[in-house]
Amino acid sequence: MKSERRAERSRLDPPRLAAGIGRRRSRKKTMTHEKVMELILDHYDHPRNYGEIEGAPIVCSGGNQGCGDLVTVYLDAGPDGVVKRIGFTGEGCMVSRAGASIVLEKAAGLTIPEIEAMSAELIGETLGKRLTLTRHGCAHLGFNTLKKALHGWKHRLSWHTPPGE
Predict the structure, then answer these.
(1) Cystine design at 64: which of 12, 39, 125, 137 (Cβ 3.0–4.6 Å)?
(2) CA pair distance 114, 61, nearest whole angstrom
(3) How confident is the model at residue 42 (pLDDT cuts 50, 70, 90)?
(4) What gap in Å lies between CA 119 and CA 117, rounded to an integer?
(5) Given 1.10.8.100, 3.90.1010.10, 3.40.630.30, 3.40.50.720, which CATH number is that of 33-160?
(6) Would you place residue 24 in the very low, low, confident or very high pLDDT band (cuts 50, 70, 90)?
């Protein structure tokens, strides 16, 4: 009886609804461990945006000292911030290579501000909490190297922009 009254009150009281009171929480759909492993294997066997980009103005390398993973991100964006070409090369474990492939696949075609707005939570949402907690450095290597490359792009842009523009 009490719960019926509470539900009725919440339904009729918009401020309570706006505050999230009296409403059931919706759970985010998460992939099963098996689906995550399928995704990782797919990106490891068939990495997206893999390969060196000849003449890329930004080339940025990152590594994971814990297990020796190395990733190099190649970035070519116009002065307007639109990414024209993006790629990566590297050697390392399955998680680091797949993580780099997944992140660069999501970043392809975006603008620099859109990529800057990407949160590290993207990795956890994609690869799952279990994997990102146990293999944090490997899972985030591609993401961190991409963010470092963005810093290089901004630095290069400011270096080539005349004062007052």
Answers:
(1) 137
(2) 21
(3) very high
(4) 6
(5) 3.90.1010.10
(6) very low
Q: How many whole angstroms separate alpha carbon 127 and alpha carbon 30?
A: 9
Model confidence over 111-149: pLDDT tens digits? 999 999 999 998 888 888 888 888 999 999 999 999 999
CA separation for the pair 123, 105 (Å, rounded): 12
Q: What is the pTM of this model?
A: 0.74
Give the pLDDT score at 157: 61
Nearest to 99 by CA among 148, 41, 33: 41
> How many residues does this entry show for the chain?
165
Contact, 109 vs 83, CB < 8 A? yes
| 144: its two tokens | 């961190």
